[in-house]
């Protein structure tokens, strides 16, 4: 009888260990992705605390399935770039050939809400929210 319980316990533990990685790695927008913006199109608007405005207002940030490549589309033009996670809820976006990027933080990744400010590409130097804050909403 004890042997049956031990075998059942081992089988249950093995089943749990084999299903946990599959569940944890599932592509579910309900869970943060270590600071990576999930694929989709995000509309950029002025953050409520921004009193100056931003040249990125009314542009779209398109994030591709590889979770790295992005395109900033403003009107008829677009510029490619990359996102680099910085922490569990923050990412930096740099654009090819541009001195400025975006420093973004997730607010509610379940609904595609991110906020951020422009930064100097590849650095931690960023503008304050009252001067340049932006909000991204997934379309």
Written description of the protein model:
With 139 residues, the protein is α+β, with helices and mostly antiparallel strands. Helices cover 19% and strands 40% of the residues. It has helices spanning 2-24, 129-132, and strands at residues 40-46, 60-63, 69-74, 77-87, 90-95, 100-108, 113-120, 134-138. The chain has an eight-stranded antiparallel β-barrel with strand order 1-2-3-4-5-6-7-8. The radius of gyration is 20 Å and the shape is globular. Mean pLDDT is 80; it is low at 11-27.
Order of helices and strands: HEEEEEEEHE
**Widest beta sheet: strand line-up:** 1-2-3-4-5-6-7-8
Rg, Cα atoms, Å? 20 Å
Report strand %.
35-45%
Low-confidence stretches: 11-27
Would you tell me the overall average pLDDT?
A: 80
Features:
139 residues; alpha+beta; 2 helices
In short:
Helix content is about 20%, strand content about 40%. With about 140 residues, the chain is α+β, with helices and mostly antiparallel strands.
Task: Tell me the layout of helices and strands.
Blueprint lengths: L1 H23 L15 E7 L13 E4 L5 E6 L2 E11 L2 E6 L4 E9 L4 E8 L8 H4 L1 E5 L1
Antiparallel strand pairs: 1-2, 1-8, 2-3, 3-4, 4-5, 5-6, 6-7, 7-8
């Amino acid at each position: 009888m004890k042997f049956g319980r031990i075998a059942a316990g081992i089988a249950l533990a093995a089943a749990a260990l084999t299903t946990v990685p599959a569940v944890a790695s599932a592509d579910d927008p309900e869970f943060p992705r270590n600071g990576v913006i999930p694929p989709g199109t995000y509309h950029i608007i002025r953050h409520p605390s921004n009193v100056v405005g931003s040249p990125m207002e009314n542009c779209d940030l398109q994030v591709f399935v590889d979770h790295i490549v992005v395109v900033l589309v403003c009107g008829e033009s677009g510029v490619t770039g990359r996102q680099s996670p910085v922490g569990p809820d923050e990412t930096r976006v740099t654009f090819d050939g541009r001195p400025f990027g975006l420093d973004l933080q997730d607010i509610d990744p379940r609904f595609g809400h991110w906020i951020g400010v422009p930064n100097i590409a590849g650095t931690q130097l960023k503008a304050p929210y009252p001067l340049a804050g932006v909000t991204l909403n997934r379309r």
